[in-house]
Design brief:
Oligomer: single chain
Distance between the termini: 39 Å
Number of helices: 10
Order of helices and strands: EEEEHEHEHEEHEHEHEHEEHHEH
Structural class: alpha/beta
Radius of gyration: 21 Å
Shape: elongated
CATH superfamily of the largest domain: Bordetella uptake gene, domain 1
Number of domains: 2
């Protein structure tokens, strides 16, 4: 598997502090290193089984293996899972796992009490590429699907009325001059049922949501919005949007690890060391392959620029 590294971990300066800083949840030693005083928490703003939960548990195992410190994964409602980290400024023994939706989309759609800038953004560790799926046999090829979209238009399942799905649907419609009429569903499972029942022509989903139906022969994967083919056997031959002439970069559900506000440099060093060790390990490769993700690793100033660009693209779509 090819591992795409967009930025290397920036070096953090060490502070020669002794004792335990206020709210640190651990101890900064005289040599500038930090260690937790108890169990580390990985806060997940999602229920068990979803993409954020999978990331949280994979990272928790990696932290334990690398540091020897014990971890616990706690599941919360989406907003609560982000806010609980914000409410612990300077505390190093808790990190959250986030994504494009809860870090950028949701704060720009409603007043949730936070923005991505409220946190210590540590590293983006993967991108969850979206795919266009259809009922098995509905289209003979991606070209036929686009042709029908150019003609009478197609209906497409959309999870919620939020800008995240709207952005990607709009990007696809513009790229291929298609008419895509969104039909709102509550979740990925409902979208799949809508496609299988014939209520909609297409659904735009992440791989983990639809792979069981593809493997069962119920769904066909028509198109990938990714920049390169996935290694997963069910997805490696799926045409890329760029293969059909699309030139723009499509939005992705990127996945990120973030810390509390006002972390000490030594606390950041602790987490960045664990994150970088994980992304260089076979366990990370397994996480990427099992979930058909794009292995993207971004930190530091490049990460800030990446999030800012994602937010600007969203705001332009919302105008």
């Amino acid at each position: 598997m090819t591992r795409k590294i967009l930025a290397t971990t920036s070096a953090f300066s060490l502070l020669l502090l002794a004792g335990c800083g206020q709210g640190s949840g651990g101890e900064t030693h005289e040599d500038g290193t930090w260690s937790p005083s108890g169990t580390l928490e990985i806060a997940v703003g999602a229920q068990p089984g979803g993409g954020s939960d999978i990331l949280g548990r994979a990272f928790a195992s990696a932290v334990e293996e690398h540091t020897g410190d014990s971890t616990v994964v706690e599941n919360y409602d989406t907003v609560d899972g982000v806010l609980i980290v914000k409410d612990e400024p300077g505390k190093g023994d808790i990190v959250g796992v986030g994504n494009y939706s809860n870090m950028v989309v949701r704060p720009n759609e409603q007043d949730v009490g936070y923005t991505w800038e409220d946190y210590t953004q540590l590293a983006l560790v993967a991108e969850d590429v979206s795919y266009v799926v259809a009922k098995s046999g509905a289209f003979s090829s991606a070209e036929e699907m686009v042709e029908q979209g150019n003609g009478g238009g197609l209906t497409v399942a959309q999870v919620g009325s939020g800008a995240a799905d709207s952005l990607l649907t709009g990007q696809l419609a513009e790229a291929f001059d298609m008419t895509l009429n969104p039909v709102v569903y509550e979740g990925g499972g409902d979208s799949i049922r809508g496609v299988l029942s014939g209520d909609v022509d297409l659904a735009i989903l992440e791989a983990a949501e639809f792979l069981p139906q593809v493997e069962a022969g119920e769904l066909d994967v028509m198109l990938s919005t990714g920049a390169e083919a996935a290694d997963h056997p069910e997805l490696s031959d799926v045409p890329l949007a760029s293969d059909l002439g699309a030139e723009q970069r499509f939005s992705t559900q990127w996945r990120i690890i973030f810390g509390a506000p006002e972390l000490e440099p030594a606390q950041e060093d602790y987490w960045m060391d664990a994150i970088e060790a994980w992304t260089e390990s076979p366990a990370y490769d397994e996480y990427i392959e099992d979930n058909a993700l794009s292995p993207t690793f971004i930190t530091g100033d490049e990460l800030t620029e990446y999030i800012e660009e994602s937010e600007q693209n969203l705001l332009e779509n919302m105008e």
